Amino acid sequence: MTTATRPGVRARWTLIDIVVVVYALVPVLWILSLSFKTKETLTDKSFIPTEWTFQNYVDIFSTNEFPRALVNSIGIALIATLIAVVLGTMAAYAIARLDFPGKRALVGVSLLIAMFPQVSLVTPLFEVERSLGLFDTWPGLILPYITFALPLAIYTLSAFFREIPWELEKAAKMDGATPAQAFRRVIAPLAAPGVFTTAILVFIFCWNDFLFAISLTSTTASRTVPAALSFFQGSSQFEDPTGTVSAAAVVITIPIILFVLFFQRRIVAGLTSGAVKG
Amino acid sequence: MAEIILDKVTKRYPDGALAVSDVDIQIADGEFVILVGPSGCGKSTTLNMIAGLEDITSGELRIDGDRVNDRAPKDRDIAMVFQSYALYPHMSVRENMAFPLRLAKVDKKVVQQKVEEAARILDLTQHLDRKPGNLSGGQRQRVAMGRAIVRSPKAFLMDEPLSNLDAKLRVQMRTSVSKLQRRLGTTTVYVTHDQTEAMTLGDRVVVMRGGHVQQIGSPQFLYEQPVNLFVAGFIGSPSMNFLPAGLEDGRLRTPLGDFPLTDRIRRLLEGGSAPREVIMGLRPEHFEDARLVDEPGAAFTATVEVLESMGSDKYAYFAVEGEAAMAAELEELAAESGTAEMADGGSQIVSRLSAASDAREGAELSVWFDPDKIHLFDPSDGRTLTYVE
C-alpha cells in the first residue's frame, strides 16, 4: 500500500479503472435513464432524458402484479436465505471441525448439486410439485432455492470456520462452556463475517433466479419479480412496456443494494487477529 | 487446590497409535510439575487428558480422590493456558478474563473485582479495555494467564505457555510464572520441550519419551542421577558428553585413555550385570584445565577446536578420535536437537573450564576430569549402570 507510485503507473491504473467502471455501469445507467423517460421520448436515443417523468414508477405500483411480486420476492428470498444459512452453518461447522463417517460423501454430493444443471430439473420438479400441491406456492420456490443455495453456503462457510483456531473452542471448554455455549459465544461471533457474506451470496442467488420462478409459478400467489417482469404489458398491445420494465428493474435492484450495504458493515476483515500467535 | 493422580493412564488413538502408555504420576496439592520431552513424546496428550480435551483410553485420572475420566472439562474445575494463548479476539481483555466467571454465573460485582485483582497481579490494569489484537506477545500471554487465575481453579495446566515469546521475555516470564505459582499455591502441570524451563520452574520434572515416563524427580536429582541415556542427554545444557568405553579388570578403556574405576563406581557396578562395552557419560562441568587442579584424577591432552568464553567460564570443545557412542536414545536426542551428525565420525566433547584457564583455540590443552563423576550406561537398552538406588 505504501509503494511510491509514479505518475505514469497511476494514470494507467486510473484509465483501466474507468474503463471497467464504465463497462459495468453503463447498462445500469441506461436502464435508469429509460425508466425516467416518457413514452414519447423513449426512443430518442438520448442518454439523459429530455423529459423527466415518474409516471413509469407510478404505473408499476398502481398495478396489482408488481407490488405483489415484490412481496413474493422479498419473502421467498429472505426465508430461503435464512434457512440455507442456518443449515449451511451447522453443516459447515461439522465439516470443518469433525471427522465423521460419510464426510467426504457429504462434501462430494453438495458439490454435485452445485454442478447439476438446473434446467434439467425443471420438468421433473414441475411434475413433483404439482402432485405434492407445492406448485405455485412459496414453499414450492423456497425448497429448490435452499437446495441450490446450500452447497454455496456450505463451501463458503466451511472456509470461514477453518480459519477460526480450534484452540479457541478448547479454551472455551476449559473456561467452563458447554459445547453450545462455546459455539454461541466464541465461534459464532467470529464466524459472523462468513455468515453475512454467505447470506449476501445466497440472497442474491434467490433474488435473481428466473428459471425456477417462471417454471414453478403460475399466478401472483408466488410469482417473483424476475418472472413477473416478463409478464409486463403495455396498456394496449400496441404499447411498448419498456419504460415500466425499466422502472421495475430499477426497483428490484434497490433491495439488493440495501441488503449488501446493511451486511457489508458487519463484514469486518481480520476479526480473528490476536486470537493466537503465529 | 487439588491433588492429581494419573494411574496407568493410556491413550490409544482409533488408528491404533499409542500416544501415551501406562503413565503413573502423583501430583501433590500445590506442587509444580513439569512434563518435558521431545516433540511427540506424549506430554501434550497427557496434559489434554488431564484437562478433559482428550479421552482416556484406559487407566484412571483422579482429582482430589474423585475419578474424573468421564467428566467434561468444565466439570473438572481446571484452567488451562494454551501455547497459542487462544484469546477470544472479539472480546476485550476484561471480557476475556471475565469469561470463565460469567459462564459460572458469578455475581457481576464479584467478577469485576476478581478481574481487576488479576489484572493488578499481572500488570494488565491499563490494558483492560483493549482487544487482544492490539497487545504485544507478552501482554497476550499475561491475559491468557489472567483468564486462568481469575476463577481460582483447582489446578492450572500450561501447554508450552512461553514458547511463543522471544528469548529475553521468556526468561522474564519464567520467573513471573514461578512467582505467581508460589503466590497462589495452586497445583500446576506445565508442559515444555525446553529442558531449561523444566529445570528452573518445577518442583518435580517428569521426563517423557515415546509415550512412556522415563523418570520423575526433582530437577537436581534428574541431573545427578539420570536413570538412562535419554534422561542424561536430555537434561542439562550443554548436554552430557557420551563416549564409547570398555570395562576391563576394574579399568575403563576410553578414547581419552585408560583409567581405573573409583571405588564408588566399582561398588555400584558390582552385582549388576555390566556388559564389557559401555557408554561413558561425563558432564561438561566435571572437566577442568589440568593446570588449575591439584586433586588426583584422570587427565588427557587434546587440541581445543573451539573456545567459547562466557566471561564467568569458558567452554572448550575437543574432537575425539574413534567411534562415537552409539545407542538408539542418543540418535533420538541428536535428531531432536538437530545436531545429527558430525560428518567425519568421532565425537566431540564439551567441557566447561574455569575462566582462569589459558586454553586457546588450536592449542593443545591438558584436561583433568573427576573419574568419580562419570556415568556408565548399557548401550543395548540405555539403562544407567551407575544408578544409585
From TrEMBL, chain A:
<feature type="transmembrane region" description="Helical">
    <location>
        <begin position="138"/>
        <end position="161"/>
    </location>
</feature>
<keyword id="KW-0762">Sugar transport</keyword>
<feature type="transmembrane region" description="Helical">
    <location>
        <begin position="69"/>
        <end position="93"/>
    </location>
</feature>
<feature type="transmembrane region" description="Helical">
    <location>
        <begin position="105"/>
        <end position="126"/>
    </location>
</feature>
<dbReference type="InterPro" id="IPR000515">
    <property type="entry name" value="MetI-like"/>
</dbReference>
<keyword id="KW-0472">Membrane</keyword>
<dbReference type="InterPro" id="IPR050901">
    <property type="entry name" value="BP-dep_ABC_trans_perm"/>
</dbReference>
<dbReference type="GO" id="GO:0005886">
    <property type="term" value="C:plasma membrane"/>
</dbReference>
<dbReference type="Pfam" id="PF00528">
    <property type="entry name" value="BPD_transp_1"/>
</dbReference>
<keyword id="KW-0813">Transport</keyword>
<dbReference type="InterPro" id="IPR035906">
    <property type="entry name" value="MetI-like_sf"/>
</dbReference>
<feature type="transmembrane region" description="Helical">
    <location>
        <begin position="182"/>
        <end position="205"/>
    </location>
</feature>
<feature type="domain" description="ABC transmembrane type-1">
    <location>
        <begin position="70"/>
        <end position="263"/>
    </location>
</feature>
<dbReference type="GO" id="GO:0055085">
    <property type="term" value="P:transmembrane transport"/>
</dbReference>
<comment type="similarity">
    <text>Belongs to the binding-protein-dependent transport system permease family.</text>
</comment>
<keyword id="KW-0812">Transmembrane</keyword>
<protein>
    <submittedName>
        <fullName>Multiple sugar transport system permease protein</fullName>
    </submittedName>
</protein>
<keyword id="KW-1133">Transmembrane helix</keyword>
<feature type="transmembrane region" description="Helical">
    <location>
        <begin position="245"/>
        <end position="263"/>
    </location>
</feature>
<feature type="transmembrane region" description="Helical">
    <location>
        <begin position="12"/>
        <end position="32"/>
    </location>
</feature>
<keyword id="KW-1003">Cell membrane</keyword>
UniProtKB/TrEMBL annotation, chain B:
<dbReference type="InterPro" id="IPR003439">
    <property type="entry name" value="ABC_transporter-like_ATP-bd"/>
</dbReference>
<dbReference type="InterPro" id="IPR012340">
    <property type="entry name" value="NA-bd_OB-fold"/>
</dbReference>
<dbReference type="InterPro" id="IPR017871">
    <property type="entry name" value="ABC_transporter-like_CS"/>
</dbReference>
<dbReference type="InterPro" id="IPR027417">
    <property type="entry name" value="P-loop_NTPase"/>
</dbReference>
<keyword id="KW-1003">Cell membrane</keyword>
<keyword id="KW-0762">Sugar transport</keyword>
<dbReference type="InterPro" id="IPR040582">
    <property type="entry name" value="OB_MalK-like"/>
</dbReference>
<dbReference type="GO" id="GO:0055052">
    <property type="term" value="C:ATP-binding cassette (ABC) transporter complex, substrate-binding subunit-containing"/>
</dbReference>
<keyword id="KW-0472">Membrane</keyword>
<protein>
    <submittedName>
        <fullName>Multiple sugar transport system ATP-binding protein</fullName>
    </submittedName>
</protein>
<dbReference type="InterPro" id="IPR003593">
    <property type="entry name" value="AAA+_ATPase"/>
</dbReference>
<dbReference type="InterPro" id="IPR015855">
    <property type="entry name" value="ABC_transpr_MalK-like"/>
</dbReference>
<dbReference type="GO" id="GO:0005524">
    <property type="term" value="F:ATP binding"/>
</dbReference>
<keyword id="KW-1278">Translocase</keyword>
<dbReference type="Pfam" id="PF17912">
    <property type="entry name" value="OB_MalK"/>
</dbReference>
<dbReference type="GO" id="GO:0016887">
    <property type="term" value="F:ATP hydrolysis activity"/>
</dbReference>
<keyword id="KW-0813">Transport</keyword>
<keyword id="KW-0067">ATP-binding</keyword>
<dbReference type="GO" id="GO:0140359">
    <property type="term" value="F:ABC-type transporter activity"/>
</dbReference>
<dbReference type="Pfam" id="PF00005">
    <property type="entry name" value="ABC_tran"/>
</dbReference>
<dbReference type="InterPro" id="IPR008995">
    <property type="entry name" value="Mo/tungstate-bd_C_term_dom"/>
</dbReference>
<feature type="domain" description="ABC transporter">
    <location>
        <begin position="4"/>
        <end position="235"/>
    </location>
</feature>
